[in-house]
Design goal:
8 strands; 11 helices; 42% helix; eight-stranded mixed β-sheet
Length: 233
């Protein structure tokens, strides 16, 4: 996900998509700066299995319908960046939580489902990167409003926190970033090509680990499996 692609009106992930697709054998979803059927076609040809749309979908909902008809519902993921408002409702944002749209999150989720989206990637802007846990209320609201899979994202911190969210809000799946990224940096920093990864001094300093418990994917899956979450180890 190029989180500032729409802000800078760019779409420049094709090289990394192709390189990544050659090395992995799990579905690869790509988002950021996709504004047209042509943009979607290019990233799918580069090696992506699915695309995630946010800004372009809100600006032009008809794109969701056209993309679903052309590429199939299972290829189209709608990324929803949700932020809780003072009255308790959730509004959708774009540009990585920068731009308020005034669109109600639950209504938008139902609309994109009707337009043919196959999945929703639901990010809590309030929780993302905080290590304070997922927004279970948000997850339940959206999951109960639609029948398509809802992937919850934003706030993962510890194995216990992740387990509690699975039990409390029953999402279709959970997206986990920092927990795994920090583990990789902590335990495999000698293998990282900094010229490609960019500035990782903050992560290497250890200051970023205060609220997040780094863990490998294998260990996380083993923990969840041991606590009644059925998944493939």
């Amino acid at each position: 996900m190029d989180v500032v692609a729409s802000l800078y009106e760019r779409n420049s992930l094709h090289d990394i998509i192709t390189r990544t697709a050659r090395e992995i054998f799990i579905p690869l979803t790509v988002g950021g700066g996709l504004r047209s059927i042509e943009d979607i076609t290019k990233v799918l040809r580069a090696g992506a299995d699915k695309v995630a749309l946010n800004t372009a979908a809100i600006k032009n909902p008809e794109l969701v319908l056209k993309a679903s008809e052309k590429f199939g519902a299972s290829t189209i993921v709608i990324a929803i960046e949700a932020m809780k408002q003072s009255e308790g409702k959730y509004s959708a944002y774009t540009d990585n939580g920068r731009e308020f749209t005034g669109v109600d999150v639950v209504e938008w989720a139902q609309k994109v489902q009707a337009l043919g989206a196959g999945e929703i990637l639901l990010t809590s802007v309030d929780k993302e990167g905080t290590g304070m846990g997922y927004d279970d209320d948000l997850i339940k609201l959206v999951s109960n409003a639609v029948s398509i899979p809802v992937i919850a994202h934003g706030g993962a911190s510890t194995p216990e926190n992740i387990l509690n969210t699975i039990k409390a809000s029953n999402p279709s799946a959970l997206a986990i970033a920092s927990v795994f990224h920090y583990d990789a940096i902590k335990n495999h920093s000698s293998d990282i090509d900094v010229t490609e990864e960019g500035n990782i001094d903050f992560i290497k300093s250890g200051r970023a680990f205060s609220k997040i418990e780094p863990m490998s994917i294998k260990n996380m899956k083993s923990f969840l499996n041991a606590n009644g979450v059925s998944l493939r180890i």
